[in-house]
């Protein structure tokens, strides 16, 4: 016979055994004492927060045979029958499987029959938002004026889909997500009763992974009991969840603060290679950045951190502005959803890192190009003493970049109209120096036409120019391949170079020389063995490839 799941074995049987939801417990207990039980309730909230459990406790409480105020007693015949799931007067209906109007009509025909054992027939309709509109309409009259021996409890995770006509006929209770401390306390209690040895850090990670759902947390703990070891460790939980350690996440965010794209991407690659799930890693980065934002806002007391961890995060938070943290949180949170449909398991996460690292610097380079003239409210400039530029034909003048036009508003203040992409100053020669100087203009053009290609280009730099061929060095070979194939970046950057330098160029994507040396050293069998087996670290690579 299969063992009973822990979340069923330790399902609360009284209001006092429930963790959290104090506002709901207090209201229902007072209603029982005062004899003011409603005919219909609506329990709403996220999954695993106790909606169905509370409905079952309420069903026992209204039918409890005990004379004491503390109900349910879990000792009378009715309470025992409900606990053993053999009470016919407690009817649980899955609305997801009974959505039609015929199902509701069948329910409506049976509510008139009086209960067989209990005082009230209690109908618990789970996921009630799945009922069709016709089914809701058929339920309305019965829900508004049910027989005196019937109580309805509707439970849903999506109250927005329930018609207002139904909500107006019930008493609504909103269940909130449980706090981290409440989940940790419950898991610790269950572990003690089950004689489980588990590290406190492992319990905290399970609680964080549950995101406020007690049932999810207990199910994860149940899954870990089958691991087969004497003690459940943090490493085992990380292996089960595909989670990265706080140290890895902290190092990645530190590289983000330093705007070190290469090292950040390397950390992501190593974490995934060692078993971390990219989506889970994205969630942990979002949670870490959120903690930094709370520290930045002066709300560090709301975080459950050791003094050492808090001091480290406070120092790291000082390297970010609030805007940078908000921007990074949005990017990595978006990556969580994009990873579901990504053709590559880590690409959205890598792009989020690149954008969060270089977005500000790139925007500062490309917003006002150095050679772009700025309109000023000054008298006309004196005639230039430089030789006059020969007059060109109309076909030639059409190919010249347009200059910004300054117009005067009614107030007399000159106003600069939007201008097209400015032309590079170095028109005669194409070199690495000229490319580097005008790289912001090229990125500006690419971003307008292909944002993915532009994000990948931030991981690249011009390394060589050979006649009309421009060689771009990427810090990661994978990004170079995706830039050419998936993002179709070669086409758009060649157009961008033609726009800026007024000459046709061919683009070739390679691994940057520096990264090629690093990869060669990392692939060396002796060095790889030292890193993997002895825990060595590569701290510096000289130009000739020696460490």
N-to-C span:
61 Å
Q: Can you identify the CATH class of the largest domain?
A: Alpha Beta
Strand proportion, as a percent range, falls in 5-15%
- The CATH H-level homologous superfamily of the largest domain: P-loop containing nucleotide triphosphate hydrolases
What would the principal axes of the Cα set say about the shape? elongated
Q: From the alpha-carbon coordinates, what is the Rg to the nearest angstrom?
A: 33 Å
The helicity comes to 40-55%
Q: What summary fits the major beta sheet? A: 5 strands, parallel
CATH fold-type name of the largest domain: Rossmann fold
Strand tally: 12
Strand line-up of the largest beta sheet: 2-3-4-1-5
Task: Give a description of the structure.
- The protein is of the alpha/beta class and 547 residues long.
- The protein has five domains: 6-174, Rossmann fold (3-Layer(aba) Sandwich); 180-241, Helicase, Ruva Protein, domain 3; 246-367, Zinc Finger, Delta Prime, domain 3, CATH 1.20.272; 432-511, GMP Synthetase, Chain A, domain 3, CATH 3.30.300; 513-547, no CATH class.
- It is built from 25 helices and twelve strands.
- The strands form four sheets. The protein has a five-stranded parallel β-sheet with strand order 2-3-4-1-5, covered by helices on one side. A three-stranded mixed β-sheet has the order 10-11-12.
- A hairpin with a 5-residue loop joins strand 8 (406-408) and strand 9 (414-416).
- Helix 12 (246-258) packs antiparallel against helix 13, helix 12 (246-258) crosses helix 14 (278-296) and helix 14 packs across helix 15.
- The radius of gyration is 33 Å and the shape is elongated.
- The two termini are 61 Å apart.
């Amino acid at each position: 016979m299969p063992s009973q799941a822990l979340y069923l074995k330790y399902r609360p049987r009284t209001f006092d055994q429930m963790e959290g939801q104090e506002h709901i417990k207090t209201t229902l207990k007072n209603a029982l004492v005062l004899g003011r039980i409603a005919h219909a309730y609506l329990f709403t909230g996220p999954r695993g927060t106790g909606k169905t459990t509370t409905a079952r406790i309420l069903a026992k409480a209204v039918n409890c045979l005990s004379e004491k105020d503390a109900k349910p007693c879990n000792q009378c015949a009715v309470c025992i029958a409900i606990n053993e799931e053999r009470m016919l007067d407690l009817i649980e209906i899955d609305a997801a499987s009974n959505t039609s109007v015929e199902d509701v009509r069948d329910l409506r025909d049976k509510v008139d029959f009086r209960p067989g054992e209990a005082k009230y027939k209690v109908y618990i309709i789970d996921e009630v938002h799945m009922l069709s509109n016709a089914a809701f309409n058929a339920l309305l009259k019965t829900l508004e004026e049910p027989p005196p021996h019937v109580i309805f409890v509707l439970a849903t995770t999506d109250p927005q889909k329930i018609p207002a006509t139904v909500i107006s006929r019930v008493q609504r209770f909103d269940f909130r997500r449980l706090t981290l401390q409440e989940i940790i306390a419950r898991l610790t209690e269950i572990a003690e009763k089950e004689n489980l040895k588990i590290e406190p850090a492992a319990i905290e990670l399970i609680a964080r992974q549950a995101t406020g759902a007690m049932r999810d947390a207990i199910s994860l703990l149940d899954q870990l009991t089958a691991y087969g070891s004497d003690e459940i460790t943090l490493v085992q939980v990380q292996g089960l969840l595909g989670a990265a350690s706080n140290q890895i996440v902290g190092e990645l965010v530190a590289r983000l603060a330093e705007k070190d794209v290469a090292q950040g991407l390397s950390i992501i690659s190593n974490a995934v290679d060692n078993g971390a799930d990219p989506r889970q890693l994205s969630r942990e980065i979002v949670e870490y950045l959120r903690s930094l934002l709370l520290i930045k806002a002066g709300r560090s007391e709301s975080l459950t951190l050791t003094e050492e961890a808090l001091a480290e995060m406070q120092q790291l938070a000082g390297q970010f502005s609030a805007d940078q943290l908000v921007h990074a949180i949005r990017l990595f949170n978006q990556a969580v959803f994009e990873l579901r449909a990504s053709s590559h398991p880590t690409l959205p996460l890598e792009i989020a890192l690149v954008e969060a690292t270089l977005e500000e610097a790139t925007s500062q380079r490309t917003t006002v190009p150095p050679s772009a003239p700025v309109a000023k409210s000054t008298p006309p400039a004196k005639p230039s003493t430089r030789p006059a530029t020969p007059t060109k034909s109309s076909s030639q003048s059409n190919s010249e970049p347009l200059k910004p036009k300054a117009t005067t508003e009614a107030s007399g203040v000159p106003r600069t109209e939007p201008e097209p992409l400015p032309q590079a100053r170095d028109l005669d020669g194409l070199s690495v120096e000229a490319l580097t100087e005008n790289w912001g203009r090229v990125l500006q053009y690419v971003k307008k036409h292909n944002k993915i290609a532009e994000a990948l280009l931030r991981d690249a730099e011009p390394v060589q120019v050979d006649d009309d061929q421009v060689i771009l060095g990427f810090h990661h070979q994978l990004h170079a391949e995706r830039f050419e194939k998936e993002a179709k970046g070669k086409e758009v950057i060649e157009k961008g170079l033609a726009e800026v330098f007024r000459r046709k160029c061919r683009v070739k994507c390679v691994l940057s020389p520096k990264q090629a040396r690093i990869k060669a050293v990392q692939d060396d069998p002796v060095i790889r063995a030292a890193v993997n087996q002895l825990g060595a670290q590569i701290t510096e690579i000289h130009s000739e490839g020696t460490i």
